[in-house]
Design goal:
Layout lengths: L6 E2 L29 H21 L5 H7 L21 H10 L2 H9 L9 H14 L5 E4 L6 H4 L3 H5 L2 E6 L2 H10 L4 E4 L12 E7 L19 H12 E12 L1 H4 L4 H7 L2 E9 L5 H4 L5 E8 L14 E5 L5 E5 H5 L6 E7 L6 E6 L4 H9 L10 H4 L10 E2 L9 E4 L2 E6 L2 E4 L5 H25 L4 H22 L5 H6 L6 H5 L2 E4 L4 E4 L20 H12 L4 H8 L3 H4 L7 E3 L6 E3 H4 L2 E2 H14 L4 H9 L21 H12 L4 E6 L4 E6 L1 H4 L2 H6 L7 H9 L7 E3 L6 E3 L1 H21 L4 H15 L2 E2 L26 H7 L4 H68 L13
Parallel strand pairs: 1-14, 2-3, 2-5, 3-4, 5-6
Antiparallel strand pairs: 6-8, 7-8, 9-10, 11-12, 13-16, 14-15, 15-16, 17-18, 19-20, 21-26, 22-23, 24-25
Length: about 900
């Protein structure tokens, strides 16, 4: 639905040379960012949060004095202790205060931010901007995709800030709220970078201290690359920067030093690597209370058709420190050790003790950064205006904010605009009458959005009444001036806006009389707040209500609903709830009588031996035990880990006729090992009957156990390359299949073994009963508008239902039918595609079969000869006369 007003206030275009970002806060040295003890930083955080809340309540702009308080907010990455729950911590008072200060969602977001909320120091940011200016950047559109509270905006050089448009993205709501108060002229979006809708190629500079960690973000556009979070920021950031634009990111040293070069290879043909500066592991110690070796990486996006250049940075190389210790680091730093502001040592503690890290040298960090910046290339960035931009600044694209829908009308700097893609397109040639109608309709649309929002968010009655009063005023004003909303002139004026159905649903319109009456939203709630039931008539009703409220058989809730103790109503729920002896919690029958019911039965029998009340559990569990599978129904294949190694060993010994075979299974690595002594390896069964001269039966059994396919290779004498010996490979694979088939028969031949393994299989794998719902946990009532979350309510049809207009229900039914036919059409198209693919590949399959058939006489002749030899070896001499056919 959006949480913002209809008019968009983005940074001014700088018309007539006016300076931009004049309302933004400029961080001063006396602000002393990141200084103080951990407790002091926590107190600063509390003060900033409390002030931000106060500013919201009072609906006023922050003064300079307010901003000096807000800018000291350092996030929670350096003080995660405040989220500790154990009572022994000396942070318990702070934890309770923070929990009371933040709402549930804000608290969880703050706790999640401890992984990455390490704000950058003034020294590092100042050094980065010196580097950016050396590269030639003076002004432009700037993106900060991991904003925090906006230190990169507050420390931007004054002239650069005065002529740049700033866009920041921050996922943490508390940080984003503070950033908006510090930098009101910037476009700040409270969302994850993966969800931000930004125009590709629209920024001149992307600059940030990106989050890093061993986790991934969901973005279908980049899913095939499987990027970790820091790599993802590089990939998407490069997409948002224009050709020729710069990307300057702080990241962990792993981006450049890790063996996996996937990101570096991905960026190779997209950007020039300009250089990098490695910061010592103390660079963030004071400001963020963390020791991490980080790199500042400088990239320039390639122009169309431009060939990659710059120093090599894809591979790793060896680097020795002053003590002769060798490290594997990026080849750029190996060739340019002066760009590392210290010396590599085994002193890191970020993830483990004594990990490779850059220990600081004796230089001051600011001086060391200044020296390194002088080694970067100069003036390689070209302002877009000098190259291709011929339009005036007034013609630059206006980035649309996320809450503005596609094709929706909005107001920008007092002008009517429409969203096309990710930009706003001003509409300058509208007729005077249509422009007046659109302006009034935008205000009415925003009023109905706010009315629905107050009900969805459960605000107090006074706020809801105020929003409803504004809606009535806007509607009355519009109708008095332009007539009912459903008049053709009004529909034509707003016909492309996706919220037109919402507006039309605000009134019941009679086409014949051309008169309209207001719907229910103008006089009452249309989204009712859920009312918790206070009593129940029967224990079954109480159970259903408790399940809906808490998701479990909550006896305390049921006792309150029935005003009866559990001892009285539990007998009436016999067979519907059971007490789990393991958890000592009450569970519904569909929950308790499902899952591993064999283990549950063992637990219940043990509990019943001590407490007869659990006999009811035993009886119920015995009734739902899965029927045992017979040996013929169990797939006992060679390599199944549930079959003991001793049985596999017995099979191998029987097969080879030798006791010199041992079989072991390593569960830790999931691998089988088969060993045989000299006697076993020399048997005919090993090399001829069950194996071949090139692939013995011992090797085949081990391959079969480890699910490997045997392949015989020869060495080409000319090229010394390995080539497959097709004849020997085919023979080995045939022998393996023969061994597998023999095992399937052998495993069930012995009665004792058959009973033992059948029991083992049934106990371990045939013990789970699927959950069968009895309807106690469900709610069969039709969904209402209040059951739909805020994201779904952005659709105009759903919001129209909330306005109280019943005519929309019919349209919803038709839309559902259309969707059904659309799915059928898609399924039909997929079926056609599959059939065409099969027809296309049929010819190739036929050729493969023909080649196999052509080779078959040769293999058949060999197999027949081999089989005859085996029969002769197995024949027992006898005195039959005349000799039998086997002789």
């Amino acid at each position: 639905m959006g949480d913002d007003p209809g008019e968009i206030y983005t940074p001014s275009a700088g018309r007539n040379g006016q300076r931009l970002n004049t309302r933004n806060y400029r961080i001063q040295p006396e602000d002393q960012l990141g200084e103080g003890s951990l407790k002091q930083k926590c107190r600063d955080n509390f003060a900033a949060i409390e002030l931000a809340r106060k500013l919201d309540v009072e609906n006023r702009t922050a003064t300079d004095e307010d901003r000096r308080v807000l800018v000291k907010y350092v996030g929670w990455g350096g003080i995660p202790q405040v989220f500790a729950w154990h009572a022994a911590t000396d942070w318990e008072d702070e934890r309770q205060k923070l929990s009371a200060l933040l709402g549930t969602e804000e608290y969880e977001a703050a706790r999640a931010s401890t992984l990455n909320a390490h704000y950058t120091s003034q020294t590092v940011i100042a050094g980065i901007y010196r580097a950016v200016e050396r590269l030639g950047f003076q002004q432009g559109r700037v993106l900060e995709p991991a904003l925090g509270i906006g230190h990169f905006f507050g420390l931007m050089p004054e002239e650069m800030s005065a002529h740049s448009k700033l866009t920041g993205v921050e996922i943490d709501p508390t940080s984003a709220s503070i950033a908006r108060k510090l930098y009101p002229d910037a476009d700040i979006r409270n969302q994850g970078f993966e969800a931000a809708s930004l125009v590709d190629g629209s920024f001149d500079l992307a600059i940030s201290n990106v989050p890093f960690g061993d986790y991934k973000l969901f973005d279908p556009k980049f899913s095939e690359h499987n990027f970790l979070v820091h790599d993802y920021f590089f990939a998407k950031g490069m997409e948002k920067v224009r050709p020729g634009g710069l990307m300057v990111f702080i990241t962990s040293k792993g981006t450049l030093d890790k063996i996996d070069s996937g990101l570096r290879d991905y960026l190779y043909d997209k950007a020039d690597f300009l250089g990098a500066i490695r910061l010592p592991n103390t660079a963030f110690k004071q400001n963020a209370n963390t020791e991490v070796t980080a790199d500042i990486i400088f990239l320039r996006k390639l122009e169309t058709g431009e060939t990659p250049g710059g120093p090599a940075w894809s591979a790793l190389d060896e680097h020795s420190n002053g003590d002769g210790v060798v490290f594997q680091i990026n080849e750029y730093f190996a060739a340019n050790p002066h760009m590392m502001l210290g010396e590599m040592r085994h002193e890191g503690t970020m993830y483990r003790a004594n990990e490779p890290a850059l220990a600081p040298d004796t230089r001051d960090l600011a001086d060391a950064l200044r020296e390194a910046v002088e080694n970067l290339p100069s003036n390689i960035y070209q302002q877009l205006a000098k190259k291709t931009r011929t339009d005036t600044p007034d013609k630059e694209d206006i980035l649309a904010l996320d809450y503005v829908k596609e094709n929706a009308y909005t107001l920008h700097d007092g002008l009517i605009a429409i969203r096309i893609g990710n930009v706003l397109q001003p509409l300058e040639n509208l007729g005077e009458d249509r422009a007046r109608r659109i302006r009034a309709l935008i205000k009415l649309r925003d009023a109905v959005r706010e009315t629905l929002r107050t009900q969805i968010e459960g605000r107090d009655e006074e706020t809801i009444l105020l929003a409803r009063r504004v809606l009535n005023d806007q509607y009355d004003y519009f109708v008095a001036r332009f007539g009912p909303l459903n008049e053709k002139a009004n529909i034509r004026a707003f016909d492309s806006d996706p919220d037109l159905p919402l507006l039309l649903s605000l009134e019941d319109y009679n086409d014949e009389t051309r008169r309209a009456t207001k719907t229910a939203i103008f006089r009452e709630r249309t989204i009712q707040r859920a009312q918790a039931p206070r009593f129940a008539e029967t224990p079954k009703d109480a159970l259903v209500l408790a399940l809906n409220a808490t998701g479990r058989a909550d006896l305390a809730a049921m006792e309150a609903l029935l005003s009866r103790p559990p001892e009285e109503f539990l007998p009436e729920l016999k067979g519907l709830v059971y007490r789990n002896p393991q958890t000592e919690q009450w569970e519904t029958d569909d929950q308790y009588l499902s899952g591993d019911v064999r283990s549950k039965l063992e637990d219940a029998r043990a509990a019943a031996a001590a407490d007869p009340r659990y006999q009811e559990n035993v009886t119920a569990l015995e009734a739902v035990q899965p029927a045992d599978l017979s040996a013929s129904e169990i797939d006992a294949r060679l390599g199944a880990v549930w079959i003991p190694a001793a049985d596999i060993e017995a099979f191998a010994r029987t097969l080879l006729g030798s006791e010199g075979v041992t079989v072991q299974h390593s569960a830790a690595i999931g691998t089988w090992f088969v060993k045989a002594d000299f006697t076993a390896r020399g048997t005919v069964a090993n090399t001829t009957e069950w194996g071949t001269t090139r692939y013995s039966a011992i090797e085949l059994i081990q391959d079969a156990l480890n699910l490997k396919t045997p392949t015989v290779y020869d060495t080409d004498p000319k090229t010394d390359a390995r080539v497959i010996n097709a004849q020997q490979t085919e023979g080995a694979r045939d022998k393996m299949e023969k061994i597998k088939e023999r095992f399937k028969t052998w495993i069930w031949e012995d009665d004792e073994r058959r009973e033992r393994l059948s029991r083992k299989y049934n106990d371990e794998f045939n013990s789970v009963r699927l959950r069968v719902f009895n309807g106690m946990t469900g709610d069969a009532t039709m969904r209402r508008a209040e059951d739909v979350d805020a994201t779904a309510l952005t659709y105009a049809e759903v919001k129209a239902i909330a306005s109280g207009n019943p005519l929309v229900i019919e349209k919803a039914a038709i839309d559902a039918e259309v969707m059904r036919f659309t799915r059928l059409k898609k399924q039909h198209a997929e079926s056609q595609y599959q059939m065409r693919y099969r027809i296309k590949t049929l010819g190739e399959s036929t050729q493969i079969c023909e080649r196999a058939i052509a080779k078959r006489p040769f293999f058949q002749e060999q197999l027949q000869a081999q089989s005859l030899g085996e029969l002769r070896r197995q024949c027992i001499p006898c005195s039959l006369s005349p000799p039998c056919s086997r002789s």
